[in-house]
Amino acid sequence: MTDDRADDGHGMTTDLRPRALDVAPGGVHSNARLGHAEMFFERGSGAHVQDVTGRRYIDYVLGRGPNLLGHAPQAVLKAANAAAESGMCLGSQHPLEVLAAEKLRSLLGWPGMLRFTTTGSEAAELALRVARAYTGRQEIVRFEGHYHGWLVDDAPAPGADQTAARWPAGVDPWTHMLPWNDEHALRTLLERRGTRIAAVIMEPVMFNHGGTLPAPGYLRACRRLTEACGAQLIFDEIVTGARLAPGGAAEVFGVTPDLAMYAKGIAAGWPVAAVAGHRAALSMVEDGTVNHRGTYNGSTASMAAVVATVDAIADGQVHRHIEAVGSRLMSGFAEIADKVGVRLRVRGFPAAFYIALVDRDPGEPWEEAAPPDMSGYRRLVAGLVDRGIWASARGNWYLSAAHTHDDISTTLRGFRDVLASFAAGDR
């Protein structure tokens, strides 16, 4: 693409931002992008993205997580394009959706069956409806800082109108919000209201809020407590599914939920999600007790992408590579920060982790920690972007099969330069 419009030096031409603001709220089509609303990318390839001025960046945002194999992986593209040539939406069943479901179920290991949908938000809504139908109960237990899609998390931003933007009165009383990693709080609530609780839903790792890991034994305790009261345990594996391991967090931690949602990684960036679970619960969809529809559920190209992605990651080689490059990046960040005297919290897994500038020692990965210095972190990210390293202003870092050790070396050099300026007083 050629473009003779003026460039402002920050990944955009001068007229794109005002044009975007004119046609879309905030100039973006997802509020997750508001932190970098001025950036316009033209293409992605492997572990790199290129902005509209032609500048390349090593990418650690990866489409907010889904690009497990990097941008535009050829095997997935070839399969999806071939499927699309036969039609995107055929209005009935086709062989690829059967094959995709079989392969994904085999990869995960634990579900009896699954149902495809298009987005993670839809999958979360479906999982909660299934849990309510199966148990005959209404109340849901959630946890502070966990995110389950915009259909479930309807609260407006701080300072916004807290009434008109929310669901009508009468919905919130069905939801109990608890602190995470607090077994006592969950046990107390379930002892009091367990016979009314349909589901306990959680991210098995808090990647949407600080990268906090479950405390030792916590997920197993949640499994025992939900089984004791007959509630469904739901894992939100939108981020962790396929990314942490072929079988997601359920494989990593050895805890099997009743229901789980997947998206992002299972199709290497193509728009698809799924709810997996035991047959008795998902039969609520089959007999019509839970109405689940969607024109693009199981679309041909997305199903081909699932098949190609599962084939790519099933033998574990992709995850072993990501483990190597991601571990090096995490330890490198921590070592550099320690040498220059900047307190840095690094939490998570090599495939997906969270970093933050903090004012005191981080403590254990599952403990409450000091609030991050977000303004300082945004300046850190700005310095990295200036050096050709694309990172999220929220603190989430993602690795892909396309990242190389040369990418890691370049990133660590840039990180060292920016932190050195912080230590010199520029923070």
Averaged pLDDT, please? 89
Q: Report the major sheet.
A: 7 strands, mixed
The assembly state of the depicted protein chains is single chain
Number of strands: 14
Summarize the structure in words.
The protein is α/β, with parallel strands linked by helices and about 425 residues long. It is built from 12 helices and 14 strands. A 7-stranded mixed β-sheet has the order 4-10-9-8-7-5-6, sandwiched between helices. α2 packs antiparallel against α9 (about 300-315), α4 crosses α8 and α5 runs parallel beside α6. The longest helix has 24 residues, at about 315-340. It is globular. The relative contact order is 0.15.
Itemize the secondary structure elements and their pairings:
Elements: H1 16-23, E1 41-45, E2 48-51, E3 56-59, H2 74-84, H3 95-108, E4 113-117, H4 120-135, E5 139-143, E6 175-178, H5 183-193, E7 197-202, H6 218-229, E8 232-237, H7 248-253, E9 259-262, E10 273-277, H8 279-286, H9 300-313, H10 317-340, E11 344-349, E12 352-357, H11 374-386, E13 389-390, E14 396-398, H12 405-426
Parallel strand pairs: 3-13, 5-6, 5-7, 7-8, 8-9
Antiparallel strand pairs: 1-2, 2-3, 4-10, 9-10, 11-12, 12-14
Helix pairs in contact: 2-9, 3-9, 4-8, 5-6, 10-12
